[in-house]
Known about the structure:
This protein is mainly β. The chain has helices spanning 10-15, 32-36, 41-46, and strands at residues 19-26, 49-50, 59-61, 67-71, 76-80, 84-86, 94-102, 111-120, 127-129, 135-137. It has three helices and ten strands, in the order H-E-H-H-E-E-E-E-E-E-E-E-E.
Amino acid sequence: LIHNVVKGAWAEIIRDGASIQIVPIDAGATTDATFRDHDTLAQVIAAATERSTGGWNRKAIPNASVTLIVDDTNDRVDVDIADQTWTGVTVGAVTDLEIAEDLGGVDSGDRPISLHDFPITPDGSDVTATVNVFARAS
Length: 138
């Protein structure tokens, strides 16, 4: 899902030099409809459980590592990042990955971009998220 606060603007956010972060969360009973209305990363985290132990951590992705792909043939713009790996994850089930604009301050100032289903029950092995295109505008 694309959060309402960035609809129509996320490609411009990337084009303007924003860095992003990936936050592993357990959404619990919170629905996509509820997450869609959150305007800050702090609101997303308040409605979920951030996973930050047992091998889980936030992944900071500098703007230089975010690829904006203009596809004139299909009349769309895709945003891509490299696959991300968490090493030796031992605890903390994850249901989703939140991708947010990292404004370098606090979660209450960071803007959520997209939420992706990512159900993982850790068993001590490495976990890799293959993020081919995390957002698309057409």
